[in-house]
Amino acid sequence: MRILANYGSRENGSSYNVTFETTGDVKMEQAEETVDELFRLAREAVQRQMEERDLEFPPKEDRVTIPRVASNGNGSKATDKQRAFLRKLKAEERKGIEIETLTKQEASALISELMEV
Is-above-0.85 flag for pTM? Predict the structure, then answer.
């Protein structure tokens, strides 16, 4: 018998999911014990990820925003690709910056800064 154990959790807009699977056949007599162990491992893995996230991002009151670059009215908005990449880098959470209002130049500077970390 093949056994899968799934565990997921959501917190503050982030989603965490883990799936564990047995690599070989499990005898029926061991199924309950195996399920419990796989589920425990999956739950612990999700909790570790959530704890690491808490360590990675400072609390909102400790976050620093980068100064806005003066664009003299001619700075065009950040591209869709820049905004998508900034979302992947979690710029809004890490820096408290509204991605939709950035210019191309500001988005490039922020991407560079976040990639250095």
Answer: no
